[in-house]
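haha ok so turns out i had the wrong file open the whole time. this is the CORRECT one, sorry everyone. sequence first:
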Amino acid sequence: MDHHRTPLFTRLKEHAANNPVQFHIPGHKKGMGTDEEFRQFVGDNALSIDLINIAPLDDLHQPSGVIEEAQRLAADAFGADHTYFSVQGTSGAIMTMILSVCSPGDKIIVPRNIHKSVMSAIIFSGAKPVFVSPAQDPNLGIDHGITTSSVERALKRHPDAKAVLVINPTYFGISAHLEEIVELAHNYNVPVLVDEAHGVHIHFHEDLPISAMQAGADMAATSVHKLGGSMTQSSVLNLNTKNGYVNPQRVQTIISMLTTTSTSYLLLASLDTARRNLALNGQEMFDKTIKMAGYVRDQINEIEGLYCFGKEILGGEATYAMDPTKITVHVRHLGITGYETENWLRDHYNIEVELSDMYNILCLITPGDTEDSVNTLLEALRELSKTYYKVGEVKELVVKIPEIPQLSLIPRDAFYADTEVIPFKESAGRIIAEFIYVYPPGIPILLPGEVVSQDNIDYIVDHVDVGLPVKGPEDRYINQVKVIVEADPIF
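then structure:
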């Protein structure tokens, strides 16, 4: 297919150039009715294509024109049989995947370090999660992927599962052996769904982990906006229908149910143009990005007190491949937390990182980076080391990772059960009815239906005390939590 074409973006530009007299929403009408300061900052061109699903521009809910063409081009670029644009982000695409294959009571095999959107879909569907523990890195304090052997154990115990969900790659850039997992699941006639939120770029370069579509997975939710150059909140859902596990008509119905009827054509146009750029220039763009990331990693590992893992971490079942553009800087040898590091970089160098946790910061090297930007980061990290690293004087932070809680109720049942509010520090042994998670990355520490342990309480309190963004409960300060009044366990 001709990837120089941008059918949707081209049609939007033509429509704006025709300057039609508008008597439809949005009411700002090409920016004329919006705040003047906002208009001047955003620009007339952007506002002129902030449009809706009028006939010349097709309709995302039932595409038959330029949106359908744009989605076909995207499918070709990503090696998919069908691609659906999402203006609900990858969260919406993930929920679509799960709701497309799971009904109330169905089992779905998922890693415990899932994004909260996975659990939202499990609650919506009434499905029963079968959790697989991800491999934990006791030195770095992070989770990696799930292993083929752990998936095999889950499938042997639950051969009636309706799907296996895999994260590829993780937030920190680590991939398990996805091809093996796909082959294994398909031997059980179980489809594989992939959370590929952090892997839009991996399809376009051979030195990056294999993509979901390349591995033969059945569906993959992919954040084009994260690393592919489209606007925030724009993503794609890729389908492989060759194995017969996925019904594209069902997927279209579900994604339409979850999608606003006021679809943003700015977001859709950015997907169309990002696909063009990835298809035509992805190899060259990520050649440069990978080389730049390699330089950054090498330089960081020469700084006292800091460590940035590379290929030496590979070789295990859960660490089969890595995305070198993810720069995870381990800081516990400085005696400070990742959160303190994030704030120090912001205050002293005006640097914003992707995320921080107790022991690490994550920085993303993308095609948008320059020699100047990465050298600013390196200069800042060298100064950070000078400030905090003192041989023999620093007490290193001890890595603590709590055990995965016991699931005692289907999350949907827990979410809708009769509840009471009690002090969080007194909740050990009770079944929680709320999410508690750190965002980013949005991975739940506790899920509705899980039994709270004292380790969970201590772990969450430690995160709150150092200022990490712990979220989820109705009490934003997490002094109180909702727990189940009484319930019969399901397991």
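The first helix runs from residue 7 to 18.
again sry for the mixup
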